[in-house]
Amino acid sequence: MLKKERYEAFIQYFSENMPVAETELDYETPFQLLVAVVLSAQCTDKRINLVTPALFRDFPSPEHLAATHFDELFPYIKTVSYPNNKTKHLIGLGKMLVEDFDSEIPETVAELIKLPGVGRKTANVITSVVWQQPNMAVDTHVFRVSKRLGLVPQTAKTPLEVEKQLIKHIPKEYIHKAHHWLILHGRYTCLARKPKCEVCKITHFCKYFEKTYGKVTHTNTPL
Q1: pLDDT digits (tens, 9 = 90+) for 105-139
Q2: Which residue pairs from 67-73 have beta carbons closer than 8 angstroms and sit at least 24 positions apart in sequence?
Q3: Alpha carbon separation from 101 to 19, 29, 176 (Å, rounded)
Q4: Is 26 a catalytic residue?
Q5: Taking Cα atoms as reference points, which of 1, 64, 2, 56 lies closest to residue 29?
Q6: Is 139 a catalytic residue?
Q7: Which is catalytic among the residues 58, 71, 102, 121?
Q8: Which among 45, 46, 139, 211 is annotated as catalytic?
Q9: pLDDT, tens digit, for every residue of 155-186?
């Protein structure tokens, strides 16, 4: 199967079977999403959704984060990964939003990555989810699944290289959804250690499946 055909099959399947694809983080405003994504680094969305209700209730705006101190904020997020660093990041993030952005969430990747705790992946998530910009955030799921499916060559060794490949081949109108398609497929079906190929519906264009089990011509072939 040619790469173009693989991408076409990928888009066709998920457009039909997952037309609504969204983040599993709970949020109501761009500010809340930004905080949740910063907290979610190397942590599960499920864990983040457990801690954010109280956090959002007591720190509903950048001004509230900017005005707090470490010992006050830390207890709210002490159960997430790297709570010390993330506490410092959130306070710094709040201050910068207030001082440099009039408490508004920046709408570009270049501006977002200036904020403490915000890297390219987080900035891509915010811009694609909030404003449907054609940006592709590459986390471990996207990195793994895009290679297994054959959308990205194995020679792509960094998240940025994977991001560039996906952006190049996925039509702009699908990029913000494709991010979630890849994440959700990796989270629930194409698991890191033991992918659930026996129940997967897209084995007909999966390079990993073809290499492991032989060439197939239809979906969900019994193993």
Answers
A1: 999 999 999 999 999 999 999 999 999 999 999 99
A2: 67/94, 68/94
A3: 34, 16, 25
A4: no
A5: 56
A6: yes
A7: 121
A8: 139
A9: 999 999 999 999 999 999 999 999 999 999 99
